[in-house]
Specification:
It contains 10 helices and 21 strands. It is an alpha+beta fold and 417 residues long. The chain has 2 domains: 148 residues, Roll (CBS-domain), CATH 3.10.580; 226 residues, Phosphatase 2c, domain 1 (4-Layer Sandwich). It has a 5-stranded antiparallel β-sheet, with helices on both faces. A 5-stranded antiparallel β-sheet has the order 11-12-13-14-17. Helix 4 packs across helix 5 and helix 6 packs across helix 7. The radius of gyration is 34 Å and the shape is elongated.
Length: 417
C-alpha cells in the first residue's frame, strides 16, 4: 500500500490518506467460533464486543459461515429463544453463504463482489482468507473508503500528468511567443485552454523578407485536442520544409496531405462502407504571410477568418477562408486553399480568432457572442494599444459569458503593422 503525502490547510497538518490496493489492507483481526460453539458463547462475545457486527464460523481453519450480530441478538430477544437455543450449536444462526474473499483480491474486484452480494454484503461485511485459510474480516465501509481513496489518487495522478502536459505545450510555443515580442512592436496573444491543455495552437516565425502568423483550432479540446496540436505542429514544420513560407495556401495544402496520409483519413467519396471505422480529426486554421517590402498580407484560411481594420476604415473588414477543414476525411487530398492578398496601410490592425471566442454562449438569450459583437469591441477600442485591446476583448467576453461555462478553448492573435 502507498500513501498520499500530507498537505497543509490553514497551517494544520492533514493525516496522510492511506491507499489500499488489495483486500489484505482492509484486514481486521476478529474472534471466530467453531460449529461446536454454543450460542451462549456467541451471545457473550457479542455483549463483550459491541463493535463486532459479524462473527465468523471456522472449521479446521476454513471459514464456513458468518453470524450477523443484529439477526442473532434479535432472535435471542424473542420469548423462550434463549431457553431453547443458548446451549445449541451456533450454526443455527449462521449464514452458510457469506462473502469470502482472498487477501490478494484487488480492491476493484472486491467492490464488484460486494455490490453483487447486495445489502447482505453491505451489512455483514466479508471474510478475508489466505488460500482458503481464515485470516479475519473486512467491512463494506472500509472497502468504500478504500475505493474513494484509490479514485482520488488516480485523479491526482491524472491531473499531475495533465498539468505537466500543459508545461510541455507552453514550452513548445515559447519560440513563437518570443518571436512575436521581438518582431511585433504592438501585438497581443490570447491563449486560454478550457481544460488546462488546449486544442488551439499558434505559430510565428520571422524571416528576412517578412513573417508568418498561424492560428489553428484542432478537433476537440482538453487532452485529445492537445494531442492533436502536437501532431499538427509537427506536420506544419514538415510542410514549411517543403513549400514556400510566403505561400499560405500551399502550406495548408501540404499539411492537409500529411495529415490524411499519416492518419489514414480517406475521402468520403471513396469510402467503402465495409472499411474499418477510423477517427476523423483535423483542424481549422488561418495562415497569414506579411511581406515587409511590399507591405502586403497574404491570407489563406480553413474556416477561420481574418479581420482587418485600416487606419481610415469605418468598419472591420473580414476575409473569409475556404469552407474546408484541414485533414478531415471529407476534405479531398488535392484540396486547394485560395490566397487572398491585401495591402496594409501603415497602422493597419489584423486579428485572428478561433471559434471558441465567437461561439461562446452567454447573454440573456444564451446565444453566441458572435462576430458582430467582436467587431464592435474592436471598433470601440481601435485607438488603444493591442495589449489594451486584448483586455477589452476578454472583459467583454467574460461579461457576456456570465455564469455560462466555457464552451471551448479561446485563442486570438492581434497585431498592428
Amino acid at each position: 500500500m502507498d500513501q498520499i503525502s500530507a498537505a497543509n490547510h490553514g497551517g494544520a497538518a492533514v493525516e496522510p490518506v492511506r491507499i489500499v490496493h488489495f483486500t489484505e489492507g482492509l484486514l481486521l483481526p476478529c474472534d471466530s467460533v467453531t460449529p461446536a460453539t454454543p450460542n451462549k458463547d456467541v451471545f457473550a462475545l457479542f455483549e463483550a464486543q459491541p463493535e463486532m457486527m459479524g462473527l465468523p464460523v471456522v472449521e479446521d481453519g476454513h471459514p464456513i459461515g458468518l453470524i450477523n450480530r443484529n439477526i442473532f441478538m434479535q432472535s435471542m430477544a424473542r420469548p423462550f429463544h434463549r431457553e431453547v437455543f443458548l446451549n445449541k450449536s451456533c450454526i443455527a444462526f449462521m449464514d452458510k453463504e457469506p462473502l469470502i474473499v482472498d487477501k490478494k483480491t484487488s480492491i476493484q474486484d472486491l467492490s464488484f463482489r460486494v455490490l453483487e452480494g447486495g445489502q447482505k454484503a453491505m451489512n455483514d461485511g466479508f471474510i478475508i482468507s489466505d488460500d482458503d485459510r481464515y485470516l479475519g474480516v473486512g467491512t463494506a465501509q472500509d472497502m468504500l473508503r478504500a475505493v474513494a481513496n484509490l479514485q482520488a489518487e488516480k485523479n491526482r495522478l491524472v491531473m499531475e500528468s495533465i498539468d505537466y502536459a500543459s508545461v510541455i505545450q507552453q514550452s513548445l510555443s515559447r519560440p513563437s511567443r518570443d518571436g512575436m515580442r521581438k518582431t511585433l512592436a504592438d501585438h497581443f496573444l490570447i491563449w486560454e485552454p478550457r481544460d488546462v491543455v488546449s486544442g488551439d495552437f499558434y505559430h510565428f516565425h520571422d524571416y528576412e523578407d517578412g513573417f508568418l502568423v498561424v492560428l489553428f483550432d484542432c478537433t476537440g479540446h482538453g487532452v485529445p485536442g492537445a494531442f492533436m496540436t502536437l501532431i499538427m505542429s509537427a506536420f506544419l514544420q514538415s510542410a514549411l520544409n517543403t513549400v514556400r513560407h510566403d505561400d499560405p495556401g500551399a502550406i495548408l495544402g501540404a499539411v492537409n496531405r500529411l495529415v490524411k496520409t499519416a492518419m489514414g483519413h480517406i475521402d468520403h467519396q471513396h469510402a467503402d462502407s465495409g472499411d474499418e471505422e477510423s477517427a476523423d480529426d483535423g483542424m481549422d486554421a488561418a495562415f497569414c504571410w506579411i511581406d515587409r517590402r511590399s507591405r502586403t498580407l497574404t491570407y489563406a484560411g480553413a474556416h477561420l477568418p481574418l479581420l482587418l481594420l485600416g487606419p481610415d476604415d469605418q468598419e472591420v473588414r473580414s476575409l473569409d477562408g475556404d469552407r474546408q477543414g484541414v485533414g478531415y476525411a471529407a476534405t479531398p487530398m488535392d484540396q486547394v486553399w485560395r490566397n487572398h492578398v491585401v495591402e496594409l496601410p501603415e497602422g493597419t490592425c489584423a486579428y485572428l480568432f478561433t471559434d471558441g471566442f465567437v461561439d461562446q454562449l452567454g447573454g440573456p438569450k444564451r446565444i453566441a457572442f458572435g462576430k458582430r459583437r467582436t467587431r464592435e469591441v474592436i471598433l470601440k477600442h481601435r485607438g488603444q494599444t493591442m495589449p489594451e485591446q486584448r483586455a477589452a476583448l476578454l472583459a467583454a467576453l467574460e461579461d457576456y459569458q456570465g455564469r455560462e461555462p466555457r464552451k471551448d478553448d479561446v485563442s486570438a492573435i492581434g497585431f498592428r503593422f
